[in-house]
Automatic annotation (TrEMBL):
Species of the source: Zhongshania guokunii
SUPFAM superfamilies found in the cross-reference section: lambda repressor-like DNA-binding domains (SSF47413)
Domain HTH cro/C1-type residue range list: 20-74
Highest taxon listed in the record's lineage: Bacteria
CDD domains: HTH_XRE
The protein's name: Helix-turn-helix domain-containing protein
Length: 81
């Protein structure tokens, strides 16, 4: 039987935030994202900074609406050793 390594699903929040800021030619803060999406600043900070942070589908949905993307654009599967 093959050994399964430590795999995580990473949320590409920082990357999408940078891309949106670049497209809109302005700085977008976590506070602004929090106000628009209803996701707490604490949750957004954990999503941005904690690899493999375990969140819920409501958060994923709100971020997809905010970034106008699909879950496949927001989530990345990372295989570990």
């Amino acid at each position: 039987m093959a050994r399964v390594g430590f795999n995580v699903i990473r949320i590409l929040f920082k990357q999408l935030l940078d891309e949106k800021s670049f497209r809109e030619k302005r700085r977008i803060t976590v506070g602004e994202v929090s106000e628009v999406t209803g996701i707490s600043r604490a949750t957004l900070t954990r999503v941005a900074n904690v690899p493999g942070y375990n969140t819920n589908t409501d958060t994923i949905n709100a971020l997809c609406v905010y970034f106008e993307c699909e879950p496949k654009d927001l989530l990345r599967y990372i295989e570990g050793d």
